[in-house]
Amino acid sequence: MKCGCCGKYIGDISFDKSYKMPDEVWALPEAEKNNRTQIDSDLCRLDERYFLRGVAYIPVIDSEKSYGWGVWVEVSEQNFFEYVDNYENDNSSRPSFLGVVANKIPSYENTLSLTVQVQLGNETQRPTFTFIDKEHLLTQEQVNGVSIEKAHSFSN
Length: 156
Ligand SMILES: [Zn+2]
Description:
This protein is of the alpha+beta class. The chain is built from 5 helices and 10 strands.
């Protein structure tokens, strides 16, 4: 399958984009970042607030692929520490919980503060996010998919 905008094969297109930290943390001056935050690749604390990184998959229409937005979501302290305590375990049968998106996703309006359902994975999977605001384009596209051309435009 080829992309209609550039003729690239689907296998040659990057299908994910990851954010290094929540936007709010990214925007802090260096000294405050050092004093107020603790962060690694998947977990972040800012003062008494807690964030984790996962992936929101958007299926690409007529393909087996999905585009993965590697965003951060803010979660409750309790959910955060349950995740930390069980980080090495298979958490895929744990109940899902709510999170709030902490990154601006380009090409979409108002993604900061969008609510998602967080589903933890097994030992090798990142948490996955499902959008629940039915009015939002991301929620609709997570259900209906996006064209390969649109998925490709995310990486440009
Ligand atoms: Zn293209």
